[in-house]
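Please check this today:
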Amino acid sequence: MYLFFLDKPDGVTLNQLCDFKEDLLRIYRRLRPNATSEEAETRINNLSHPLGEGFNPTKAHINRIITDLLKEPLADFYKISGERSEPYKIKIPRTLVDIR
C-alpha cells in the first residue's frame, strides 16, 4: 500500500481505491511472488473495498512504523494522511522519491 501511495502524489480517496485494484495487485504480486492468486485477490479486495476493514488498520500499522523510526515532526512527511472524504496521500515531495 505504501508503494502505491508513493506513486500517487495527488492522492486517492477511499472510494477511488477500488478503481486501482489492478495496480495494487501488481505491487502485491511483486512483493509477494509466492502468494497464491486467491490470497492476493482476497487481501487486495479487503484493502481496496470502501467498506472493507483492511485499509485503516494497514495505514495505521505503516504510519506507526514510520513514526517509530523517524519521530515527529519528520514522520509527518512520510505517513499516509488524509480524511475519509478527501484523498489520502504521502506529503513528501516526489522530487525526493526514487522508486525503481
